[in-house]
Specification:
Chain B: Belongs to the radical SAM superfamily. Biotin synthase family. The complex is a heterodimer of chains A (64) and B (345). Chain A is an all-beta fold and 64 residues long. Chain A has one domain. Helix content of chain A is 0%, strand content 23%. Chain A contains no helices and 3 strands. Chain A has a 3-stranded antiparallel β-sheet, with no helix packed on it. Chains A and B meet through strand 1 of A and strand 1 and helix 5 of B.
Chain lengths: 64, 345
Amino acid sequence: MFCVHCGRPDAEGEHPGCRGARAALEPPRFCPECARRMVVQITPVGWSARCSRHGETTSAVPTG
Amino acid sequence: MTAAAERTHDSTIEADVLAVAREQVLERGVGLSQEQVLAVLRLADDRFEDLLALAHEVRMRWCGPEVEVEGIISLKTGGCPEDCHFCSQSGRFPTPVRSAWLDIPGLVEAARQTALTGATEFCIVAAVRGPDARLLSQVRDGIKAIRESGNDIQIACSLGMLTQEQVDELVGMGVHRYNHNLETARSHFPNVVTTHSWEERWDTLRMVREAGMEVCSGGILGMGESEEQRAEFAVQLAELDPHEVPMNFLIPQPGTPYEDYVPIEGREALKLVAAFRLALPRTMLRFAGGRELTLGDLGAEQGMLGGINAIIVGNYLTNLGRPAQRDLDMLADLKMPIKALSDSL
C-alpha cells in the first residue's frame, strides 16, 4: 500500500510530512493501490479523488 | 484634514498606540497609518488582550454584529501558468495537485451545499492567469444553472486578471463581487510572484470597482514578509478600500518553494487580525485558508472576538477546512448572527 499524501510505500521511512496537522487538511492525492497521482475535486463539504486505474473514492461522509 | 492625509501626518505614534486607536479608529473611524500598524504589531505581550478587545469594539461599532458566511469552489484546479510561490496549483512546481475541471452539475451541487450552511456567498474560483473564452463560458453556464436550480445565493468569482471586456461580461452575468488578492505588500510581491506584477493585480481591481462590482482583495500572511511589510500591506489594502479582505495564513504546500516555511503562530496571527481591523475599520475581514492550522478551534473563536466578521466555511480549494457545522455552532455560541441573504440584496 502507498501513502495517499506522498505516494511512497507506506512502510518506507517515517513520512513525517504526511502525518502532521498539515496533512490532516489534505485530501488524498495518490492512489493507495498504485501510487498514481489522482484527480481530486474538493467541494465545500467533501472531496472526490479519481485514479485512472482504480476508480473514484469520496469522503465517506460529507466533511461539513 | 482628509482621512488619507491623517494616515500620513500622524504625530501621535509615540503615544500609547491603543489609546490613539481608541480615539482615531473607534470614535472617528479613521484607520491606522502604516507606522501605527507597525506599533500595534510590536505591542508588548501584556497588551495582547487589550488589542483584541479594541479590535472587536471597532468591528462592532463600524461593521455590526453580523457575520458573512461564504463557501468556495474550484471550477478549474491546477495547471496554472503563474508561479505564485505559495500555490500548489502552479504548473511550474512539482506538487501532487493534478488539473481538474468541475462540470456544471458539480458546480450546482456545490452551490446547493453552500446555501444549506446558511451562507450568502458562493465564490467560483479558477487557477488561471486570466479567464479564456472556455472558462467564461463555463462560468456563464454555471451561474445560469445555479439560478435555474432555484438557488439565489450571491455569486462571486475569482478568475485571475481581467480585461475590461471580461469585467463587463461578469457584470452582465450577475457576478456581484470579484476576488483578486494583492497577496502581500507591494515591496514583497516580487519575492512571491515573478510572472506578473502587483500593479497588474491592482489594475484588475480598479476595473472591477469602476464596473460596479464589489472588490474583494486580501492575501496570505507568513510568506517571509517582514513586520514592516505586514504593516505596509495593511495600509495598501486600506488605500484600495475593498468591500472585503480575506486573511489567509500560509499552509506550506508540498512541492512549492514555500513547502518548508513554518506556519505563523496563533498569537501572531491574532495580532495581525486585530492590526488589520484597526487599519480597515469598515471593511469586511474574512477568516480564510490556514486558520485551522494556525489557530485551531480556540484561536478561531478569539479571532471572531478580535476583529473578524466573515468566514469561509467548509473546505477550501486544495485543502480541507473544519466542518461547516462547527463554525456555525461557534457563531451561535458567540451570539453572532449570520448575515441573511435579504440583507445582501
